[in-house]
Amino acid sequence: MSQLPPQCQIKAQVESILELLQQESTLRSYDITPIQTSLIKAISPKFEIVFAGAFSAGKSMLINALLERELLYSAEGHATGTECKIEYAQPDNERVVLTFLSEAEICEQAVALCQSLGFTDVTNIKQVEIIDLLQQGCEAIIRQEGGESKSERAKQAKALMLLLEGYTKNGSSIHPHNNATYSMEAFNFTNLREAAGYARRGSNSAVLKRIEYYCHHPLLEDGNVIIDTPGIDAPVAKDAQLTYSKIQIPIHQRWYAC
Ligand SMILES: Nc1nc2c(ncn2[C@@H]2O[C@H](COP(=O)(O)OP(=O)(O)O)[C@@H](O)[C@H]2O)c(=O)[nH]1
Ligand SMILES: [Mg+2]
Q1: Is the CB of 199 under 6 A from ligand 1?
Q2: What is the pLDDT of residue 257?
């Protein structure tokens, strides 16, 4: 057993203790789930650290400080618009992977926003004329409400505008049903920071599912994976839901920074 790597040794040792528990009739009813959960946590090569506090609390800036570089976009207000995953890379292998929403997912989000805004006869957004009409309708709502963050209705109108703009701008990168992925070279980004600028909250982030950075820093070297989120109270409902989803799913390998 001494020749095995430490994780395998721990696994084998814990499993033999659990086996002994099963053999002993008085201990058989003991709930071993917490031990199994802790074991998975202890031996996994990756450990996700989710930053899921309020929006504009300084999450992205703290991650930049931890990584000692201006990587993530950080600004006043709702600046992070998609899940940002940061993993370790060798110095000469830094890269970015962008994952887009599918056209079907974008349509579904757009139709839900249309319903909520009262554009009830919209069932798809594939025609340019429909997009133009919706953009005009959203602008009118924002004017009526007195600004894009003045009310829930105005925020939804702004979210729909960004989604439609992102869909129009990135149409060639979006697949009808799958989540298309691209390397940074496909977008002519020469470094991680350029990709981060592209993915900051706006029309591009509205159609991105996630962005993964492979970044060289000792903090990430032993399998720590940092996950930045828009924030649990992000003004755009979809972004807040995304943040909740990262902390609600009972994945054993996560630690939450709020
Ligand atoms: N003075 C001060 N400003 C901060 C601090 N952390 C973040 N900020 C500012 O707060 C704003 C929001 O930061 P950001 O990192 O984008 O917040 P996030 O939404 O939680 O990711 C930015 O304008 C930052 O410059 C801090 O520790 N001190
Ligand atoms: Mg942020």
Answers
A1: no
A2: 59
Q: Which residues surround ligand 2, an ion (CB under 5 A)?
A: 59-60, 80
* Cα(90)–Cα(217) distance, integer angstroms: 9
Tell me the chain's radius of gyration from C-alpha atoms.
22
Ligand nearest to the CA of 66: 1
Q: Which residue has the tokens 């058989």?
A: 28
Convert the pLDDT of each residue in 169-194 to its tens digit.
999 999 999 999 999 999 999 999 99
Tell me, what's the pLDDT at 51? 95
Predicted confidence (pLDDT) per residue in 90-121, tens digit: 999 999 999 999 999 999 999 999 999 999 88
Atom 5 of ligand 1, residue of closest alpha carbon: 58
Chain-centre distance of CA 248, in angstroms?
13
Name the residue at shortest CA distance from atom 4 of ligand 1: 58
Q: What is the pTM of this model?
A: 0.83
Tell the residue nearest (CA) to atom 1 of ligand 1: 58
pLDDT of residue 236: 80
Q: Which two tokens stand for residue 26?
A: 């008085």
Q: In 170-229, which residue ranges form alpha helices assigned H by DSSP? A: 192-199, 203-206
Provide the residue type at 223 as one letter.
G
3-state class (DSSP) for residue 68: coil
Q: How far is the CA of 57 from the centre of ligand 1 (A)?
A: 6
- Candidates 231, 246, 240, 193; CA nearest to 215 is 193
